[in-house]
Design brief:
Keywords: Acyltransferase, Endoplasmic reticulum, Lipid metabolism, Membrane, Pyridoxal phosphate, Sphingolipid metabolism, Transferase, Transmembrane, Transmembrane helix. By secondary structure, this protein is of the alpha/beta class. It has 16 helices and 15 strands. It folds into two domains: 231 residues, Aspartate Aminotransferase, domain 1 (Alpha-Beta Complex); 242 residues, Type I PLP-dependent aspartate aminotransferase-like (Major domain) (Aspartate Aminotransferase, domain 2, 3-Layer(aba) Sandwich).
Length: 517
């Protein structure tokens, strides 16, 4: 089935299309069979290692500690040593250049089936980069573009050596926070030196015992960790499924807390703007409508969507034509579209003032270094047109063109790809474990760098290659990648789609929701 649009009155101002085509049955059977064969051979190799017939490379307990509590759980590492190790050469490849639309790669080889690597001294030049989150192309080394960053480096140095609450707040941080608030159209913002910690260290400051967190099942690990550290009760709703979310909200209001049935102190919904493994976009209008209906709070993680979607790169709030006031906590990172590091939380002044006092990251973490802050300011001013050019707007538009072109061509070739038509994150389904390594290795032979992902980062039957489209990619680069994919798709038999366009499994099994505007 194809989901071509969303109903529910006038919540959506334009058609909202996402694709999640189910694989043919034979693909699922062969995928499980592949894991089954790998598991059988894994047990066989473990047997051979136990009897000294094969060298044991993985860490083991010392004989003197055999009566202690085991430090290395043998079975828990079964997948790592017997399946992951066979294709380990496809990850952690060291590059030696800026991760722009192309990069240089240090060649390495293995003599013991990926247990160890050695460098050959050869540099693989001009590999097309289809894996970095460099959505707007701000990861660059152009001297003129980085002139202000160089100036700040000479003025402030590289580090702060203090936290924000002590001596780590500089005029650069204040300038950046004011600019972020202006960019997002909110009252205030606070920046942090690490994107992951922006979630994991600030969610515990916002909720705690007696609060309820409703989290999308595909939320990023930083959101999951922050929720767990908070001590709040966590309940999971199906990915982007409004029936599932409303059921949890309704039950939370009706039944309250377990045992006591007292009302929850807070109910907060945690979602992402673009989901980095699925390429899907949050159904923000419906979630905002449910949030208002049940008087809950909304925490929106725009790590992958800020800069990448919206007419001027202001994320999913702008993409859906909504007001920033509809979202209680706006979170995002500078590690992707802005080519820098760190993250922000923005919203009402009361919220930001509270975090300045109570955030674990503000109290204990080192402040963002000044050159990084200047890089973010440079990129954000470019997006806002404050540098006197339209280059930022051109980058946003180019990213949209590249994304739609790349996705359309993959659909036409017959690949199963996931996500929204406007999402620059493009997962291409590989399914079978044996094809993960073969795909990445053969793409590298064609001078194309890709990211392949498997279990446990994805469901065991949904291994995939994840492409990240950039505004810095030229049409020639994309065509080179697409031609290679077309050839490799035939060679590895990866063109599983049964439709000219992929389809989306029906999320709305029940009667249509009646949501408030």
């Amino acid at each position: 089935l194809q989901k071509n649009g969303i109903s529910n009155g006038t919540l959506y101002k334009k058609t909202f299309i996402e694709h999640f085509e189910q694989a043919p049955m034979y693909v699922a059977v062969l995928t499980f069979l592949g894991f089954g064969v790998g598991t059988v051979f894994g047990y066989l190799r473990d047997f051979m290692r136990a009897w000294g017939l094969e060298k044991r490379n993985i860490a083991t307990e010392r004989e003197q500690q055999k009566d202690f509590v085991p430090l290395y759980q043998d079975f828990e590492n079964f997948y790592t040593r017997n399946l992951y190790m066979r294709i380990r050469d496809n990850w952690n490849r060291p590059i030696c250049s800026v991760p722009g639309p192309q990069f240089d790669l240090m060649e390495r080889v293995t003599d013991d089936y990926n247990w160890t690597f050695r460098f050959t001294g050869r540099i693989i030049k001009n590999v097309i980069n289809m894996g970095s989150y460099n959505y707007l192309g701000f990861a660059e080394t152009d001297v003129n573009a980085l002139k202000t960053v160089t100036t700040e480096l000479q003025k402030y140095g590289t580090g702060i050596c203090s936290t924000r609450q002590e001596m780590g707040t500089l005029d650069k941080h204040v300038e950046l926070e004011n600019l972020v608030a202006k960019f997002l159209g909110v009252e205030d913002a606070m920046v942090f030196g690490m994107g992951f910690a922006t979630n994991s260290m600030n969610i515990p400051a916002l909720v705690g015992k007696g609060c309820l967190i409703l989290s999308d099942e595909l939320n990023h690990t930083s959101l999951v960790l922050g929720a767990r550290l908070s001590g709040a009760t966590i309940r999971i709703f199906k990915h982007n499924n409004m029936q599932s979310l409303e059921t949890l909200l309704r039950d939370a209001i009706i039944y309250g807390q377990p045992r006591s049935h007292r009302a929850w102190r807070k109910i907060i919904i945690l979602v992402e703007g673009i989901y980095s493994m699925e390429g899907s976009i949050v159904r923000l209008p419906e979630i905002v409508s449910l949030k208002k209906k049940y008087k809950a709070y909304l925490y929106l993680d725009e790590a992958h969507s800020i800069g990448a979607v919206g007419a001027t790169g202001r994320g999913v709030v702008e993409y859906f034509g909504m007001s920033p006031d509809d979202v209680d906590v706006l979170m995002g990172t500078f590690t992707k579209s802005f080519g820098a590091a760190g993250g922000y939380i923005a919203g009402k002044k009361e919220l930001v003032d509270f975090l300045r006092t109570h955030s674990h990251s503000a109290v204990y973490a080192t402040s963002m270094c000044p050159p990084v802050a200047e890089q973010i300011i440079r990129a954000m001013k470019c997006l806002m047109g404050l540098d006197g050019t339209t280059q930022g707007l051109q980058r946003v538009r180019q990213l949209g063109k590249n994304t739609r072109y790349f996705r359309r061509r993959l659909h036409e070739m017959g690949f199963i790809i996931y996500g929204n038509d406007d999402s620059p994150v493009v997962p291409l389904l590989l399914y079978m474990p044996g094809k993960i390594g073969a795909f990445a290795r053969r793409m590298l032979q064609k001078n194309i760098g890709v990211v392949v992902v498997g279990f446990p980062a994805t469901p065991i039957t949904e291994s995939r290659a994840r492409f990240c489209v950039s505004a810095a990619h030229t049409r020639e680069m994309l065509d080179t990648v697409l031609n290679a994919l077309d050839e490799l798709g035939d060679f590895l038999q990866l063109k599983y789609s049964r439709y000219s366009k992929s389809s989306h499994p029906e999320l709305y099994e029940e009667s249509r929701l009646e949501l408030e505007d």
